[in-house]
Please model this.
Amino acid sequence: ENNKIVEYYNQKKSLVLNNVRYSSQIFTIWTDEERVDLGIYSVEKPDFPDMKFHKTSEITYTFNAEQKKVIGTHTVSDRELEDKNAVDKDGNTILDNHNNPEVNLGLKSTEVNTVKLEAANLIKPYAWLIQRKVTADKDIPADVLTYIANVRTKCGEICTALTNASNMTEFKQVFESKKRNDFPDDYDIKDYKR
Model:
């Protein structure tokens, strides 16, 4: 009404306008033009970015009289790449029980932790060989040692590339191109897996 949104419907529903009840079917079988005659306009929602890397503000809806529709907009911003001290609503640093600042991890730290965990999980099936070496002094097969060293090297390369990314574009490139599939294959040593 008067170019202002009075009510917004998230789903189809029956409604009363000007003392007339309309079935929820007006949202499926009526045309946009027929709904416009009642003052009901379609909503154009904004596109959303990949939320792994970005965040958005709340959607703001405005009526566009020329297009005869409600248009939603929001502001897109990058998620933090770097770690930041946690702060309260007044901007004061939040301290833990040991009087150290609490830290909100940025994307770099979060992803480095994920890559390290993945590397550890790739090595874990062969950990029994290390235990056997310590307890029974039985040698670890050279192929297994090479595999473990290669996993650690690749993990270090990926983590360094993630850490050295200076902006979101570089971070995304590392995330999308160097990750996951670059770890070595354990096909030749799978018989040692436990």
About this structure: The chain is about 35% helix and 15% strand. The first strand starts at residue 15 and ends at 17. The CA atoms of residues 125 and 194 lie 5 Å apart.
